[in-house]
Amino acid sequence: MRRSFTFLLCPTAKQAAALAACLEEHRQLYNAALEHRRTAYRKAGVSIRYGDQSGELKHIRSGDPGGQARWSFSSQQATLRRLDKAFAAFFTRVRDSRTPGFPRFKGRGRFDTVTWPKDGDDCRWDSQPEHPTATYVRLQGVGHVRVHRHRPVKGRVKTISVKREGSRWYVILSCDEVPAQPLPATGAVAGIDLGVVSLVTTSDGGYIGNPRHLAASADRLAAAQRDLARKQRGSARRRKAAARVAALHATVRRQRLDHAHKMALALVRDYDVIVHEALRVANMARSASGTLERPGRGVAAKSGLNRSILDAGWGVFLAVLADKAESAGRELIAVNPADTSRTCAECGHVAKENRLIQAAFACTACGHAAHADVNAAVNIVRAGLALREAAQAA
């Protein structure tokens, strides 16, 4: 199995400056490579590939000994591959008749990660193994940077990435051959319904609350954003105010991720088979239809619902649940969410009148009454078990 491990870096002031310079040089390399591709195609109709640009790296480094030549050749190749992947995704969207989204230049603050593709190639994890208490990672041009390693690293370190989030630096290890950690069988099966009131409702009537991390920080965020709006653009005070806003958003993101890990771990410990809806969160959180002249109906209500959906972090939770289920040897099944909240779990009658309010379900055909989320979770687990039986029969 492949897993990633993220640790907080503790650089000195000099190392932090070197990391910032490394990030900036890689951003400039990315933008220069993008401009190379655009200009070559616009003026000569020539398509530039990764191999062409990678071959030019040697000349770029020799002409800039105090800049690009300071950093790892392999990490610069990884940055060029990143651009190549952006173009590949662009052409895929064009072929699929989706909104293309041509690759854009990266401004300051829009390029926050540098990757070293192989441990030992201009980088080294645990570079001072003889140190009795601390762990270090060595990066070319930066040196041995201390790492706050709060848990053991398992498997074989494949790639090393450094990421900046606000004023913090993190090292991300991508590891192969990570051993699975199967949990003992419980024999239990559950369907889960995701919501904004209760974040998770199980088919056996269990609830996991929604802590609403963004809503809890809304007042502090609003004050920080008002303070930011009053600062003059380009000033040092504006940069400090922007850093405070970014720090608050980062805190909310970490709280949401921590809660998702705890919820997912509780579920995989209790159930052998977990069934959930195959939700498309990005589509569900789209703005209400309309234009500036005719904004449409229910725009304010849809905006509030979108904010609640994104605050709940359904996508983050499902991704974490999939990883933990794989590691624990649990089975995860995704089902079509269509009509799961409108179908009676007793008689199978489907009608939107069955659920006139958020919390209560009352079947108009047989009179069955239940909590709406529990009723939906029962329908979800039945659909998942039917899919499972059909797959086993095939």
Name the features:
5-stranded mixed sheet; metal-binding; 19% strand; zinc; Nucleotidyltransferase, domain 5; 2 domains; globular; alpha+beta; 394 residues; DNA-binding; 10 helices
User: What is the total number of structural domains?
Assistant: 2
Q: What structural class results from the helix and strand content? A: alpha+beta
Strand ordering within the main sheet: 2-6-7-1-5-4-3
**Average predicted local confidence, pLDDT:** 92
What form results from the Cα inertia axes?
A: globular
SSE run: EHHHEEEEEEEEEHHHEHHHEEEH
Instruction: Determine Rg (CA atoms, Å).
Output: 25 Å
The number of E-state strands comes to: 14
Percentage of β-strand residues: 15-25%
In helices, the fraction of residues equals 40-55%
Spatial separation of the terminal alpha carbons: 27 Å
Largest sheet: 7 strands, antiparallel
Number of helices in the DSSP assignment: 10
**Low-pLDDT segments, ≥5 res:** none
InterPro entries: Cas12f1-like_TNB, RNA-guided_DNA_endo/Transpos, Transposase, Transposase_put_HTH
GO molecular function, one term: metal ion binding
Domain Cas12f1-like TNB: 314-380
Protein name: Transposase
Task: Describe this protein's structure.
This protein is of the alpha+beta class. The chain has 2 domains: 3-176, no CATH class; 189-213 and 251-393, Nucleotidyltransferase, domain 5. The chain has helices at residues 13-44, 50-62, 73-95, 213-216, 218-230, 236-270, 281-284, 299-312, 314-328, 372-393, and strands spanning 3-10, 113-116, 123-125, 135-139, 143-148, 156-165, 168-176, 189-194, 198-202, 207-209, 273-277, 331-335, 360-362, 369-371. It has a 7-stranded antiparallel β-sheet. A hairpin with a 4-residue loop joins strand 9 and strand 10 (207-209). Helix 6 crosses helix 9 (314-328). The longest helix is centred in the middle third of the chain and has 35 residues, at 236-270. The radius of gyration is 25 Å and the shape is globular. The relative contact order is 0.10. Residues 179-287 form the Probable transposase IS891/IS1136/IS1341 domain.
